[in-house]
Amino acid sequence: MMHNILPDDDGGGRRIIGLSFGAFAIFFLLLSRLWYLQVVNADDLINQSENNRLRFVPVAAPRGAILDRNGKVLVSNTPSFSVAVIPQDVKDKEQLIDNLARYLNLDRNEIETKWNKGQGRAKYYPLVVASGITRDQMEFLEENRLSLSGVNIEMKPIRAYANGTLASHLLGYLGEVNEEELTSEKYQEYNAGDYIGKSGIERAWESYLHGTDGGRQIEVDARGRFLRTVAETGSSVGNTVVLTVDLNLQKAAEEAMGDMAGAVVAMDVNTGEILAFSSNPDYDPALFTGRMPPDVWKKYLEDERHPLENKALKGLYPPGSTFKIITAIAGLEEGLIDQNTTVECNGSYKFGNATFRCWEHKGHGTVNLKRSLRESCDVFYYKLAERLGVNRIAAYAKRFGLGTPMGIGLENEKGGIIPTDEWKLKRFGKKWFAGETLPVGIGQGYVLTTPIQLASMIATVANEGKIYRPQLVKRVVDADGKVLKEFSPQVAGTTGLKPETYRLVKDGLFAVVNEPRGTGGMARLWEVKVAGKTGSSQVVRDSKAGMAYKYRDHALFVAFAPYEKPEIAVAVVVEHGEHGGSAAAPVTGKVLRAYFEGKGVIKKPVPKVKPLQDGEAVAEPDGAEAAPAPVPPAPAGSDR
Known about the structure:
The protein has 21 helices and 25 strands. By secondary structure, it is of the alpha+beta class. A hairpin with a 2-residue loop joins strand 14 (348-351) and strand 15 (354-357). The protein starts with a helix and ends in a 19-residue tail after the last strand. Mean pLDDT is 84; it is low at 608-633. It holds the Pfam family PBP_dimer. Residues 607-640 are annotated as: Disordered.
């Protein structure tokens, strides 16, 4: 019996030992798991538990205001309502998206795209799926709250534009931060649904304007309904940015342009401060904050006047005869001409096999420097450009900062083109031909400039040599009124020209506006002496009257005043305006008048009643009897 029992006992013992080891292993695993959960992962589990009943509701900070130089409000804030969804509280995602699309009259794909953008974030963090909803939509959502689990309505401040579309290209617009921006270091503190500056001052000064967002930690029940506020962190309003622009002068510039496309830049001659900065046509920046109506967007895109383009900063135009200022300066500095140098203009100049025509087909006759500027004789500058050569002309243009961005502080500023023989070889792989220099002398050919560059050029002529970096911001102020940054004028360079050169050129520019046959007489003021230069630049070769709008010449005018002690410089470009003297010069005159009226130098016309024979009355400007003495006009088309 003993012999039979021992083997059985040995087998049972082995089974017991095996079971013991198995039980120990299971116990060990359970113990390890408990240790991991209660020790290693305790904090995480506590957070998860808390977040089952706690929610974080972000509170957007109001952006800082944007003011003009005199403290007048250009941009402030107004409340806006957004729809946010907490994914963790959503029971049926597809049904919720369908409901929101129907209730808000939105494209379902648009809502789903915004949902998917926030997938990498915590499920209890609200995702903004619709912005700028109306009060009626907000009330409708509140009424249907039971069928919209996980939906919250948030109030966010959005931009309010006190003057509508005024200075829209300068101020810029806001837009929702996109996925690419969220991954960049610059926007690492931002969240999906936040709004950031997309252009203009709003973008360039985003870090100062944005402010610091706050938030509330709230407790909710199992259905996500609010119970109480656990903790709250207040938001901090952004800083105020004070611009150099004068609101009244900005209005005058835009009103003077009317429906014409183009740009106006007014600059303080002695500081570089930008007083007006207009691109026309404008657009409505408020539309970019919400959902842009498709028909409006289509209209913007199809408008041949390109309302979305900042022409003052990025518009590239041949400067036309305004560039004769540079050619004249180069000739004087190089000793090739003086005030007594004369050229015979018979209406054209033959160079090799090519004939270069003057705008005055019958010719100007004998022309000296002053008359060449006053009447804008092309032949004078064809001959001078031939003697100078393209490289010497370019050297003097670059002394005035042409050919490179001015550094105004806004994104994508264009630098223009000042051609040289080296430039052409590098750009086209071809050598420069002497005949190509002649159009350069009158601001045509390859030469391209921006309105901000032209304003700087004429300002530098006015102050006789200092190139100020164009300045748009005077100071940045925090919510308590403390000045965080203040900006002083910056001299970017000097031209190093002889005083006599400036005297002779400025004498010619004065004649353009104030003497008989001057091409800029329509910019003339009675109370203040104005000096300037007209220009027309070809869009196509051999442009003719009556051509389609997009093929007509551009009209330009640059000016400064007062002539004796310059304060303000203005550059105007009227796209396809054809003649600088008739299209751009009057705009300049209105801007200058507004400036000097604002300073009290010129009295604003006050209507007075003058009785008529039939007993009716008509309003007449006070001081009409003191109107400027008539100046014999230059012939049509005389602003080349």
